[in-house]
Structure formats: C-alpha cells, structure tokens
C-alpha cells in the first residue's frame, strides 16, 4: 500500500439514515453498502448539520456548522475564506477530482459580475477539479442517453415522464421511465469513474469525490427497481392522526404543509404532499426504496472494479449523504424543519489497509467527515473546523471527550420572494431554527416563533410538543442553556487560538471541544 491512501468520498443525495438493510429495514435492499460496512465501520447515529443540498454539503466539505459557514439555502454563496476538504488535500499533493456536483454558489466578491457563475447554485466547491459535471439538468447524461438511442426529450425534466410518454402523471405512480437500469444517472456517473480510473497513468494516490444525485427526487426508477418493493408491504409514515392535528403543532409546520408541492417529488403531478392518500404515500415510499436499491447496485459495481484492479484495500472509502428525506413523516416529504427523518443520514467508513469491523452507536455529525479524511491523508485540520476525526473509532478507541448531543440548523428564509417572512410575520434573519437532540430530549429553538420540546423517551415519534408543559419547564430551560453554550463554544474560531503577544513569540493553541 502507498504511504498515503487513495480517497473515495461518495455522497448519495437525500439518502435517509435508516434505509440500510444492515440496520434491519424491512423493505430496503442494500447488500453492497452492507458489504462495504462489513469491511469498515457503520456509524448508526450520524446526523446532517443542515438542509437542503447546498447548506448540507457546505458542512460536509468545510467541517463547519451552518452558523459559521452561513450557506443558508441553495443559492447562498460559500465564503471564499473557508478552507474545504479539497483545499487542504491539495496541500499534501492530492488532486481532488469531482464526479457530479457540490452545489456551492461562488463568492460573488471573487468573480466578475458578468460571470455565468453568478446565476447558478450548482457551482463547484473551491479546489475540486471537475471530471464529469452532473447537475439536476443532467446534460451530459442526457447526451449519453441520446447516443445510446434513448430519447431524452426536448427539455431536461421530460425524461422523468412515465415510459417517456407525452403525458405527465396525474399523481403518485411506480411507472418506469424510458431509460433502463443500465442507463440511470448513477450508472452513467459510475461508468465515468471507472473509465477514469482505468485510464490513469502513474502510481500517485488519487482523491475522488463521487456525488450521486439519487435517491433525490423525482421519485422514479426503471425496471426492475420500480416494482422491487410492493406498496402494500410498506408501512405508513410516522405522523399525527390527521393533517389538522399535525398542522396545529407549530406555525412553521402549518406553513410548510400548505406549500410543499407534490410536483417537487413526482414530476408535474398536481397538488400538495399533505393531501396524499395512504395508497399514494405507500407508492412513493416503495419507489424510493427501489431507488436506494438501484444506487446500491452501482456502488457495488464500483467496489467490484476496485477489487478487480487491486486498489480496494489501498483506498479510504467514505459513503454518506448531504441530508435525509421525510418520506411522508409528519405529512411531509423532503428535507426541512426539525424532524429526524430529514437529518439522520448514513455514514460508512472503510479505511485503507487492514479492514476493521464494527458499528459505532454514539452520536457523530457530518462536520466530522472532513477532519476524518484529513487525518487519514496526513494534513492538519484547520483550527476553525467544528468537526473531529472519527479515525480513533475505527481502531476501537474512544476519545477522552466526545459530544453528547446532535445539533442541526435549518434556515427557511425565501430571499428572493420573501414568502416565508410575509406568511409567518418574521424579518428575514429570524427565519431559522436550531435543534439539539440527545437520546432523551429534542429541543428546537426558533428565532421568532415558539420553541418545541419532545420527550423522546416517552414520545420517540415527536408527536407531542411539551414546550409549554409546566412539568417540563426546567427541562426546556436546561436544553436552551445547552444550546446557547454549544453556540458559544463553536462560533468562528479562525484566529481565536492565536496569541501574538505570548512570551517567546506567537502562540497557536487548538481548542478543546470537551463534551459539547
């Protein structure tokens, strides 16, 4: 094995954290991800820091909480001052190569006002070289399909219509698209990765970030995956007894339920997701599980190639996601709010060298991924990073101190339209929430709306808000204080560890994160 490992970072967009057969899910089939976990460590209590895609990926690649990187929504620029996994890997000789996308809008202060990068959010995080760009419009994939004789349609999203027909769906469905199982975006991108690795010259270690779009909506998948799971076998989601009861929980929840369109999940289908009947919800969930099986098959294809080439053992492999998917929980789909389904995500880490085996059931976070890879490749972690390396866990070690709660943030401002501000009566910068969650309680703090408190020991499905319950007054205060302490400890510390007046010259001391 090389002194430095190859690095393969795979992200599977909108992959819900409980959707691995290794975790006992009754419907999903993930034999290849399970096998990869068997050669490494499966982190079972892993959480995203924010949503949707751009914020979630900003935390993944910078190791920063949202309160520090401040990418609040798709389209918010990533400040150029923040180091990323790619900028740091280049310092030790890697050439980080991107297949797919990172969804990072460019810092407008660093580019021309007339640059086309000023108009997109699907930009590339600093210092990634791009091999195969693949955003939601799927341009290269659609061109590849056309070359294979599959008609991709006359506009990007038409490819998602059932069987490639002219009529859009009228609602939830499991009809396949015009392309086959060997022609999915995931298959196309996996093929490009394999071609690149097959054609590489030299023996220097490589660094690839393979960013797959699925199982992100639209929820459609070709045969045989579209019928792999029968809707009748799928459980209904976690939710209140009625839509009205669910909406009554909180003003933001009512706002989201009244605006989340089905067309965001089933292309061109009319209506709201909150109005779906039970059969439709089961159908969408079954298709999503089929999409996971399709992605799993392509992960297996790439792992088989690495083994065939003799590089599997020399490669650090990390598989994770940017955020989860509510999948009908609480009468919602997508990634928003504070519920677990939108933030619990998978994490599998297979080290280079001798395999390790195990599961880690303590709380880990997306900000830990960048420091983990950095330690593995021998590059110093920037002092501002909030995350911590997970490598000790791969060797059966427990750090002296570790966090005892997960934290995430969600910003629901609508910068262009102002819709959220008008509907909820909030100023722009008050359209945000922060969540602290441990094994017993979840506390959600809103800047301009009432808080939420859930007793997870008695109410694991988050159906009973106890924030105004007198019996929980002290618990609410304690978790609000814990959240305030967390924010104080982890706010931007780019230069806070320096002392230029210290005896003997400038001093730099790394922070001790303690139990936060």
How would you summarize this macromolecular structure in one to three sentences?
The chain is α/β, with parallel strands linked by helices.
What would your notes on this structure say?
The protein is an alpha/beta fold and 516 residues long. It has a domain at 6-349 and 364-379: 3-Layer(aba) Sandwich (Alkaline Phosphatase, subunit A). Helix content is 26%, strand content 15%. The chain has helices at residues 31-38, 53-62, 66-69, 85-90, 139-147, 185-199, 243-247, 251-257, 278-309, 369-377, 391-394, 419-424, 473-490, and strands at residues 6-12, 41-47, 50-51, 97-100, 129-133, 207-212, 315-320, 347-350, 358-365, 406-411, 432-437, 441-446, 452-455, 498-499, 507-508. The strands form 3 sheets. Strands 5-4-6-1-7-8-2-9 form an 8-stranded mixed sheet, sandwiched between helices. It has a 5-stranded mixed sheet with strand order 3-10-11-12-13. Strands 14-15 form a two-stranded antiparallel sheet. A hairpin with a 5-residue loop joins β12 (441-446) and β13. The protein is globular. It starts with 5 loop residues before the first strand and ends in an 8-residue tail after the last strand. GO terms for molecular function: metal ion binding; sulfuric ester hydrolase activity.
Strands in their spatial order, largest beta sheet: 5-4-6-1-7-8-2-9
Helix percentage: 25-40%
Largest sheet: 8 strands, mixed
* Low-pLDDT segments, ≥5 res: none
Under the CATH scheme, which architecture of the domain at 6-349 and 364-379 would be assigned? Answer: 3-Layer(aba) Sandwich
By CATH reckoning, the class of the domain at 6-349 and 364-379 would read: Alpha Beta
Briefly note the CATH topology name of the domain at 6-349 and 364-379: Alkaline Phosphatase, subunit A
Q: What is the CA-based Rg, rounded?
A: 22 Å
β content, as a range? 5-15%
**Between the first and last Cα atoms, what is the distance in angstroms?**
37 Å
The CATH homologous superfamily name of the domain at 6-349 and 364-379 equals Alkaline Phosphatase, subunit A
Number of strands: 15
Helix segment count?
A: 13
Keywords: Hydrolase, Metal-binding
Pfam families: Sulfatase
InterPro entries: Alkaline_phosphatase_core_sf, Sulfatase_N
Region (Disordered): 148-170
């Amino acid at each position: 094995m090389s002194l430095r490992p190859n690095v393969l970072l795979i992200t599977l967009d909108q992959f819900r954290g409980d959707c691995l057969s290794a975790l006992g899910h009754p419907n999903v089939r993930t034999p290849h991800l399970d096998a990869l976990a068997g050669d490494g460590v499966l982190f079972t209590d892993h959480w995203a820091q924010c949503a949707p895609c751009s914020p979630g990926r900003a935390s993944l690649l910078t190791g920063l909480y949202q309160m520090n990187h401040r990418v609040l929504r798709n389209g918010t620029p990533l400040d150029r001052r923040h180091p990323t996994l790619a900028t740091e890997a280049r310092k030790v000789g890697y050439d980080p190569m991107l297949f797919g996308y990172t969804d990072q809008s460019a810092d407008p202060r660093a580019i021309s006002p007339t640059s086309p990068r000023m108009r997109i959010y699907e930009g590339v995080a600093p210092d990634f070289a791009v091999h195969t760009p693949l955003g939601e419009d799927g341009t290269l994939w659609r061109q590849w399909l056309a070359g294979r004789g599959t008609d991709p349609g006359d506009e990007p999203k038409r490819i998602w219509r059932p069987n490639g027909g002219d009529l859009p769906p009228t609602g939830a469905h499991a009809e396949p698209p015009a392309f086959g199982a060997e022609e999915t975006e995931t298959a196309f991108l996996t093929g490009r990765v394999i071609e690149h690795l097959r054609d590489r010259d030299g023996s220097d270690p490589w660094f690839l970030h393979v960013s797959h779009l699925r199982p992100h909506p639209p929820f459609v998948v070709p045969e045989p995956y579209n019928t792999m799971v029968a809707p009748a076998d799928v459980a209904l989601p976690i939710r209140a007894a009625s839509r009205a009861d669910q909406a009554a929980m909180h003003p933001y929840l009512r706002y989201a339920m009244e605006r989340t369109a089905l067309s965001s999940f089933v292309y061109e289908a009319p209506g709201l997701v909150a109005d779906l009947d039970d059969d439709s919800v089961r159908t969408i969930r079954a298709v999503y599980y089929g999409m996971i099986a399709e992605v799993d098959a392509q992960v297996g294809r790439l792992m088989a190639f690495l083994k065939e080439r003799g590089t599997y053992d020399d490669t650090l492999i990390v598989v994770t996601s940017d955020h989860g998917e509510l999948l009908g929980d609480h009468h919602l789909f997508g990634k928003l709010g504070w519920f677990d389904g939108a933030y619990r995500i998978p994490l599998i880490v297979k080290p280079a060298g001798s395999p390790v085996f195990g599961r880690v059931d303590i709380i880990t976070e997306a900000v830990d991924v960048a420091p983990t890879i950095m330690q593995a490749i021998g590059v110093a972690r920037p002092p501002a990073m909030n995350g911590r390396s997970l490598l000790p866990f791969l060797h059966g070690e427990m750090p002296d101190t570790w966090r005892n709660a997960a934290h995430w943030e969600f910003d629901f401002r609508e910068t262009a339209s102002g819709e959220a501000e008008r509907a909820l009566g909030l100023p722009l910068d008050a359209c945000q929430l922060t969540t602290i969650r441990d094994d017993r309680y979840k506390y959600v703090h809103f800047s301009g709306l009432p808080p939420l408190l859930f007793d997870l020991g008695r109410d694991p499905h988050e159906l009973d808000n106890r924030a105004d319950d007198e019996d929980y007054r002290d618990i609410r205060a304690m978790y609000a204080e814990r959240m305030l302490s967390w924010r104080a400890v982890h706010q931007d510390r780019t230069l806070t560890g320096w002392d230029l007046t210290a005896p003997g010259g400038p001093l730099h001391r790394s922070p001790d994160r303690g139990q936060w």
